[in-house]
């Protein structure tokens, strides 16, 4: 009770001072957990320089990059967690394969998580949970996605025949099975970026979402152009310092993201809609593209980090996961997660200095901004009394986003968190907010606090 | 192509609400000043596009009423006269309905063929002007677009439809014994080809948006939208309008082609179809099929073919004339009037006249996972009601659960639901062998074996575990509910719910109340039935209630006919020839010979010699030999790999019960009237005795539960149309030969005496 009064007193004071509603999000009895550092491989359009690699190669590179950047002893890490979406069946626990190859001690356990586009967010929050619970002190979390090679399967019929073939004992039985193969058996099964529950592709859902919120094609193109322009500027100014170079075997050293391509409104207007034809608004230019890449962050308890002599970059504070209707609200995760995480932290939208939202589609971002700015939506669908408000664009994704930098599904979360930490430092802010949507109608948000300089 | 004709004729859907192009749903005529706000049609000019929005303020659905027509004509004249307007979008501002047609009462108000023909011609004229509009008109369709509404839409130059599940296009006129009378028979064949046009017009079935696109009925589809800054329904209509406006401008700017480019296959098909001998071949095939299915009892399908033929062979003038004249003729036929009567009856039986129950059924428990029990489970889980399916053996339970799965999986195969929806629906079902969870049940329906002792046993077991407000419903075809309720501690909570097999296909639910059944219990049972999508009749308690009681004397007569040496095939053709969708012998096989024997014995005991006729021993002998009907593979027929043939061993049995026919009452027609009059007399007796509350439910029960010929409109409509006096006269002839089985009941005699007495209000 006393504590609460103290807190509200502090809140009142801050109002007078016209500053943050809170000085810090540190809670007594809760461990401070910090981001020591974060790195990523350059994000490349799939089918380009990384084309001949395997997913664990990318993840291994990110892990090695993190080792080099932080100089952490290879056995000082207690646990490794990776997020990924489309799994290479040979390396289904890609965390372990990558860790072994990256030279980490083989005594460090590793597991892989999956939660669509917020997989690496899940890897990070799992790490936070382990540290908070006192089970670990230092955890590496990361994410990887490799879209240049995805598992394309034989048809179910063909698989069934082939599996039976293994069991067939006589030559006759084998020949009979082989003889049963029909042309239809040979049609392969391609993975699709589609919801299993609704069978709708994500782009189609994004187009419907944009239409539902009345987001025009022009607005989407403008937003996409903004993302590419900001990314280009950030790249040119060397702000994307989380990128570590990668000597791809047999190819050149890659040191830059290769999907940033600021175009012109005229050029973009020429594109035909990619999903809803002929009147849709989502095009290849205002959507994120298939990307290869990996990321990694080092998370520690504050004491451990300080004990090891690190100067942490940021505190990882409250986080939430949300989920909603996978059909009509597939990509609205940020709208649901943002007010919830702010409430949890006792912050207001105005307290946030740095916003990093995952940009799946320009139409999705703009729809979320509109949803967050609508009292009607907040009341009708979120059961809230009023809107949370729309993040001001001058604080929003200022170094580009998934639309321009690329979006390796499993790796984006760590990029968002690291970018917030870097931007807080660069821009002198105190609080940052990460939010992302994910397939399955899920969403995530996390509040990040700058580490005192 | 017309295989579904009869099924469609006997199976009305609530969507077949309104079908014409004119209706009197609104009588107030607007004042002279045309500037006065219009109530039904609103026109907003957006630059060079006129957006015409339709909404009938007095109804949930839009109908092409007189007022609507008048305002539409005014608005269109303004649009055509305004040179700033280059194109038009026609849209409804009602969610779930573009135009559902018009009120059928309109046609019933007409007194002559000529009057109806004139209505048709007026509609044809309006739509011709729409079709020839120099400014392209885009119909933006969301929700039902039926009958006159569809004819309106296909007169427009371009159609955009939403993918909403409520968006259906169709020409349901045939189900009311009519035809599309505002140019539909002329435009449809040209638009979607003869085979598809016949399919639509002869079956009356609803076409979903995706199918409509494939058929060429609509040009473009628009997705439905989820939540945004407005409600999904509202925003979807706005979005549809935005897309339609783009289309309209696209047509003006020649960026959008009105005719789709055809692929090679379609070109070849079109070429082939253009030969008159190919067309003739189609006509004759369709005619043959229609005749086979309707036995010539339904005039509308043949008239539809005639109109299409006239238009294709002699040109549009002849086609339109044939259409309007045949429309007028059909409207005056007793068949159409009977079908319209059924439609009204069906609407009435989709309402709960017992009010809203105190407690909604959220958890239903079903005892017995047999055909019926599992069927009830399926139609219940589909409505997201928690359903417990209980049986006593794992084998029976397994079979029941599989039946539910299969029923839903078939829908997945037909793509009416996704596999995900199937799984999520199935999650409402719990299969079990014990009574756990019954403490949460709001209603229990027992569908165990038809044996009073067993019913009493489960009733007592159930009452020990259910909460006090839980309703106990018994699914029985013949046992009196009061006898079952005798074992209950709370007879006011006991009610009968007689489902028909297969439950997921048969529309009828017969609810039986005893003197002690409380009103709230009845309201609860009706509410559940309606939720399950049933057409519900509520009848009084008594042996065989209403439906079984009507069927039994007819089947007894059928047995006598067999004993007189008529073979099952002949018996079937006599009954189907009268208009029953299933012949009497086939029906008995379907029902189960053992069930029929059981039923006949029970009712015979209750009603005495009136239920006699055929010798019950014949059925019993069949059962003893294992000929239990379809389910056992042998009955009157032998069922083998989809084929059926007369059971060769039947002859011997029948011969041992041989009866000499009396030539005076054994002509084909006599046999038909012997069968039908016993059915009808028993139905009238049910009304006389108060088992039935009204003739409407009697007609609905007979048609939807027992397949009484739909074009006759049910036993009561039949008496009205045929004449009670004529029927009584026939029955008296039969009575002389056979005795009291043909004694007309008092109510029938009363009607015979006074020709002005009718069961249904007279329609002109």
From TrEMBL, chain A:
Listed PROSITE patterns:
THIOLASE_1, THIOLASE_2, THIOLASE_3
The UniProt entry annotates the active site at: 117, 407, 437
A molecular-function term among this protein's GO annotations: acetyl-CoA C-myristoyltransferase activity
Location relative to the cell:
Endoplasmic reticulum; Mitochondrion inner membrane; Mitochondrion outer membrane
Alphabetized Pfam families for the sequence: Thiolase_C, Thiolase_N
Question: What reaction(s) does this enzyme catalyze?
Answer: tetradecanoyl-CoA + acetyl-CoA = 3-oxohexadecanoyl-CoA + CoA; hexanoyl-CoA + acetyl-CoA = 3-oxooctanoyl-CoA + CoA; butanoyl-CoA + acetyl-CoA = 3-oxohexanoyl-CoA + CoA; an acyl-CoA + acetyl-CoA = a 3-oxoacyl-CoA + CoA
Q: Can you cite an annotated GO cellular component?
A: mitochondrial fatty acid beta-oxidation multienzyme complex
Q: Which residues form the Thiolase N-terminal domain?
A: 33-303
Checking InterPro entries in the record gives: Thiolase, Thiolase-like, Thiolase_acyl_enz_int_AS, Thiolase_AS, Thiolase_C, Thiolase_CS, Thiolase_N
Pathway the protein acts in = Lipid metabolism; fatty acid beta-oxidation
Locate the Thiolase C-terminal domain: which residues? 310-449
Described by its record, this protein's role is as follows: Mitochondrial trifunctional enzyme catalyzes the last three of the four reactions of the mitochondrial beta-oxidation pathway. The mitochondrial beta-oxidation pathway is the major energy-producing process in tissues and is performed through four consecutive reactions breaking down fatty acids into acetyl-CoA. Among the enzymes involved in this pathway, the trifunctional enzyme exhibits specificity for long-chain fatty acids.
> What NCBIfam families would the database entry show?
AcCoA-C-Actrans
Which protein family is it in? Answer: Belongs to the thiolase-like superfamily. Thiolase family.
- What's the protein name? Trifunctional enzyme subunit beta, mitochondrial
Q: Which organism is it from?
A: Electrophorus electricus (Electric eel)
As recorded in Swiss-Prot or TrEMBL, the protein's gene is named HADHB
